[in-house]
Amino acid sequence: MGIFNKIVTAIRGGATEAGQAVVDANAIRIFEQEIRDSKNAIEKGKRDLTGVMADKMKEERKVKELSADIEKYESKALQLMEKGDEALAMEVAEKIAEIENELAVHKNAAQAFTGKVATLKELMKKAERTIRDHERELNMVKTTESVQKAQMSINASYGSGIGKLGDAKESLNRIKAKQQEREDRMKASEQLEAESGTGSLDEKLKAAGVGEQSSGGSDVLARLRAKKSGGQ
Amino acid sequence: MSQLQKIAEEISAMDEEQRGGADFDFQPLPGDQEVMQVIVEEREELPVFLTESDSQLLCICYLFAEEEVIADKRSEMTDLMLDMNMPMPLSSFGKTEVGDGKSMYVVFGAMSLNSSAADVALEISTLSANAIDSIEALSDYLV
Known about the structure:
- The complex is a heterodimer.
- Chain A is mainly alpha-helical.
- Helices cover 84% and strands 0% of the residues of chain A.
- Chain A contains 6 helices and no strands.
- Chain A has helices at residues 3-12, 25-83, 86-157, 168-196, 198-207, 217-231.
- In chain A, helix 2 packs antiparallel against helix 3 (86-157).
- In chain A, 12% of the residues are buried.
- Chain B is α+β, with helices and mostly antiparallel strands.
- Chain B has one domain (3-141): Yope Regulator, Chain: A (2-Layer Sandwich).
- Chain B has a 6-stranded antiparallel beta sheet with strand order 1-2-3-4-6-5.
- In chain B, helix 1 (3-13) packs across helix 3 (117-137).
- The radius of gyration of chain B is 15 Å and the shape is globular.
- At the A-B interface, helix 3 and helix 4 of A face strand 3, strand 4, strand 5 and helix 3 of B.
């Protein structure tokens, strides 16, 4: 069973009370061991891969050398045949056949090493996937446990529990009341500012009919009438 | 100094604009697991708790207890919470056991351990605002 399932089972069984293990310690140990094994497998795989790749290169180099040798002897055999030296040409041909046999062996070896490189790379990819999966799952367990422990610390600080602070609606109302109070205070201090500042003097003067007057519609109309009668 | 203390100090040293205009008050809680209690402005009723695991930084804010939910409206509410999970910025709904068989609904945010202090500050202020909005939006489901 995967870790995710184990956590679900634990939660459904009510086993998430603080202090209780979500996944038993033994399962975690096995998990951690599997992660270590996979990491070791990757390390070993890397070393093996380097060796196999070197072997493969060696074989490929040999194939190239032998192919060049064959070409060289073939042109020599052709020259001897042109000269009519059949006996020596035959000797060269035998040498060529010998090299060709050797070439076949090295070609096979190079191919085998190529296959082995691919297999090793595949195995390492698989080990890396296993590590990633296991680490993610292990993180889930550890997070669940650290949340439980955090819960214990929080509970301890609040005595009987978090619900102690009162119910949510009450809390919300208190917070909103505080916000309202702060806004009221701000408004009040703005008003106070307005009353004690220069703004209030101007307002008093205006109220007393002194200083800048705001013109109303009747003022404008009176001005227009005066203008009209003056113009006639 | 622990990672959480470092983050708390860095956030406290920020100017108001960097903190998103909110005041934070950090208070470490004693216990096995390091927990930092954060009071955002005057919301001591809804503290945010910061804690750290091997792989992530968790910010948790408790909303209400399971027993505060009107029993026959619970599944409708949890469905709504699932619907709201994605649109809600930075936070998700969750539920956690708090001992004595009691469960609390929470909003929480999970962050990388490499998060900057500014990221954590944004997370905390967003979480706190989400918590208030959530309780308000879900109050029809509460007794």
